[in-house]
Amino acid sequence: MWRRWLMSVLTIGLLVGTNSYAYAADFTIRDVETHLSDQVYVVDAHVDYKFSARALEALSSGVPLTLKIDINVQRQRSWLPDQTVASLEQLYQLNYHALSHTYLVRNLNSGAFYVYPTRESAIESLGDLHNFPLLDANLITADQNYDIEMRIKLDIEHLPSPLKLIAYITPDWHLSSDWSTWSLKP
């Protein structure tokens, strides 16, 4: 009896794991550039968001979707592990406002928000990162090389509690980009 139970659990785990992998890279970061602007390094990039049907259905039903941008800046070192110079976390929330039939994009770090007439225009604006502040120029030295890595994912932790449990076990909610890595030489 316990063997049958164990085989069932392993089979379900394998199926969920396989499906999770299929959804693991539904966001794509491309066209990344870093430049100095007023003594701050900023990033320009474009993100292609491909949300699952379940996530879009939840959004249309009034469930806000929170997107988390993780950025790490590491100084390269020859004989030691790379040193983390900065870690950033930026949160954006995408909301559907049923009364006005508009979509809201809110920067949860700054509180700024923007209103869009369609879901597509709101998602497109989320995907356009322009002059995104990355790092103060004083935090790095000119004779060093640095690696920057960025990932964007749907933050399941910000979903309403009843939906959060379903999201943890359903691959449709495991939406993320791969880590995008590039070099910075001041």
Written description of the protein model:
- It is built from four helices and nine strands.
- The protein is an alpha+beta fold and 186 residues long.
- The chain has one domain.
- A hairpin with a 7-residue loop joins strand 3 (65-75) and strand 4.
The gist of it:
The chain contains four helices and nine strands.
Helix and strand run: HEEHEEEEHEEHE
Number of strands: 9
- Rg, nearest Å: 19 Å
Share in β-strands: 35-45%
Mean pLDDT: 86
Distance between the termini: 64 Å
Fraction of helical residues: 25-40%
Number of domains: 1
Q: What spatial form do the alpha-carbon principal axes imply?
A: elongated
Any low-confidence stretches, pLDDT <50, length ≥5? Answer: 2-25
Cross-sheet strand order for the largest sheet = 6-5-4-3-8-9
Class based on secondary structure composition and strand pairing: alpha+beta
How is the biggest beta sheet arranged?
6 strands, antiparallel
The tally of helices reads 4
